[in-house]
Design brief:
By secondary structure, this protein is an all-alpha fold. The protein contains 4 helices and no strands.
Length: 77
């Protein structure tokens, strides 16, 4: 439960959003590999469906791109 306190109280809204975007990118990739996504589901649509309403104002295509670049580099290392 300690991680929940960190997530809710110690991180900025931007940091929370980046964590959720990175998680959504990872889940999207796994589901895409396993053909578990509805047809024509884009990564951006998937991310927007998974980010809570309270943080959607933080989401931008630039933030998604930055996070995707970081996640891609870390998985390819």
């Amino acid at each position: 439960m300690y991680w929940r306190k960190i997530f809710n109280y110690m991180l900025s809204e931007r940091e929370k959003t980046i964590i959720l975007i990175a998680n959504a990118i990872t889940v999207y990739s796994f589901r895409l590999e396993r053909n578990e996504l509805p047809k024509n589901t884009s990564m951006v649509d998937f991310i927007l469906k998974t980010v809570p309403e309270s943080l959607k104002k933080q989401v931008s295509i630039e933030l998604i791109d930055e996070t995707f670049e970081f996640v891609s580099k870390s998985h390819n290392s």
